[in-house]
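Give me the fold.
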Amino acid sequence: MGNSLSLIVTVIRVVVGSIVTAPFLWIAGRWIVGGKKAQFSDAVWIGIAGTVLNAVIGSVLGGSVGSLAQLVAYLYLVKTYYETGWGNAIIVSILAVILMYVVLVGLGMVLGISLGMGAF
C-alpha cells in the first residue's frame, strides 16, 4: 500500500509540475528560439522528463553535486528539445523562471486582495 501511494504521489507531482511549468517554458522558448523550435508539446516533455530526472538524480547524488547535475540535465533537455545552444537554453530557463515568478506573485496579490475584500 505504501509503495503504490508513493507511486501515485510521484505521478501527480510529474503531471502537476509539467502543467505549471510548461506554459512559461513555452512562452520563453518562443521568445528566444522562435515558434518553429519551441512547441508546446516540447515544453510539456521537458517538464515531464525534467521532473523525473530531478527525482532520480536527487535520490542518487543529492547535495550540491546533485543540484548541479539536475541543472545540467534540465538545460540539456531545453537545449535538445528546442534545438538550440547552451547559451539560449540558459536564457530560456532563466526567462521561464522569471515569468513564472511574476505571474505567481501577481496571482497571489490579486487573490490576496480579493480574499481580503470578501471578508468585509
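DSSP finds four helices and no strands in the chain.
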